[in-house]
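Provenance and format

Records in this collection were gathered into a single text stream. Each protein contributes a sequence line and a token line. The two records reproduced below are adjacent in the stream.
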Amino acid sequence: MRTVVLGTSAFAAAVLRRLAGGPHRPELVVTRPDRPRGRGRRLAAPPVAGAALELGLELVQPEDLHAPEALAAIADVAPEALCLCAYGALVKAPLLDRYTIYNVHPSLLPRWRGAAPVERAIMAGDAETGVSIMRLTAGLDTGPVCLQGTEPIRPDDDYGTLAARLEGLGADLLVRALDERPAFVEQPEAGVTYAEKLGPQDRTLDAARPGAELERTVRALRPHVGARVLLADGFLGVWAARAAGGGEGEPLRRDGGGLRFGGLELLEVQPAGGRRMPAADWLRGQHAV
């Protein structure tokens, strides 16, 4: 099948690599423009751009996906289907009207529609998640689904370990959908939840919350975003922690040779402008905790 891939993230790059190795190798890859990143604010290409160049695939990076030149680039390769995975911008008419768009969404729809389904599933303590292959429509992940696969969420999973497994599952399901073209079935109305985009409030741990919930938040935001604790002079990043039981509402404090925040024992932290380190090493340089 002649395909065009639209994607941006590392997750999407993994799906692209799988697709490029088979009979549905993309005729064109569309991703977002290079953006400033990091402390130096240097221009960096999206992961999908790097993957496309490595694979020798034709690549475009339009500022506006729906600009005439972008639409023409897609039309010129006469795709039979578009494959979308974490593109990061709204797709609308005329693309929705002209093409069947297979969307690789990392959740068991209708649970966790929206921008951060993997993180929200871990935060909520879900026992499992998965990937849905859906036809993109104008609604927020409301389109009909043709394939789903499940994946357990392990007690020690963080975003990195779970996303890696979902990447493989999503790529396999997408290839199968293009091979077999199974029928699309409308999503049920029951069980809808929304995975809102992550914001600063999601990163900042609240000592009043149960320790198990805080520990899940730390895992959900590792290794790509990072949780944090608010201090008098800024934030202390938290990269590893475990629920310790009790202590809800208590501030950051020493606990023997360890470091506690509410019902959470902090194991790996990162001071502002510093490197990651064991919490015990950070504590040795502190006098007010």
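Adjacent record:
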Amino acid sequence: MTIITHSLAAQPKTTGSLVVENPAFYELVDKNAQIEVLAEGFKWSEGPVWVKEGSYLLFSDVPANTIYKWEENKPLEVFLKPSGYTGKMPYSNEPGSNGLIINIEGQLVACEHGDRRLTQMPLNGKGGKFPITDNWNGKRYNSPNDVVQSQKGTYFFTDPPYGLADYEKDASREINEFGIYKVSISGQVTQVISDLIRPNGVALSPDEKILYVAQSDPDKAYILAYDLDKNENPINGRVLFDATEMVKKGLKGLPDGLKTDKQGNIFTTGPGGVLILSPKGELLGRIDTDQPTSNCNWGDDGSYLYMTANNFLCRIKTKTIGKGF
């Protein structure tokens, strides 16, 4: 594997195109905006997160068991290896970290496939990482995949089988459901959603009253929405957007990671790149990276959308601002 970091000082390498379904798309992305390729050569890039204290991006290469650090006009660095599996024997095709966030305390939180846990690590060099949770009712998770934290401190994370060697048939499975879990600030873990086939990405609306979930099932390729009650429990689950027909048409990718902007629009990876949905679930258009696209997140001043797309790390300038900026 050869990783190439592209210089942005010269003419940047670009990929893909914009696909517009509604003129409102241009209120969020300029018609002349280009998808810049920042680096390439990864096995399966995932989980981009911007570190405000330092102005750099971290992202996972799940099969490579590595977290990389990208910083403008600097060489790409290995930030953490191993990132999600610390064992010595071969584990699976996707042993490393997947989804990453910076929590409200400024620490890196990682979904670790191989070690089957959610961890927290200071970025100031003072101490190593420690588990937030590695089991539910004494049973190991399948492979925590993506995570979001509310301003109250509550974590929500998904637990599909993608990090297991034999996926849903893996003999080491201890939990029947591919669930969504809530971790309270006291550390209490609750399985809050248990009836999904392939829960994947998670995000919160700007007012944090809605939890969005992407389901990576090609036959039920949904973006789901759940209201959160006063105790932050998801209720009233519903399909916000159905991408199944887009999958059947042969567009690359499945619903995966997703984020919201300050206006409540949903930027979700899916068939055909990054889909932009209105808060009501109307498809406004797509940022088509021409690659199966795993995740996205805002960085810099909150107007650049960074995207992990197969073996690429990309970004595009938007006319909106991401939640959290």
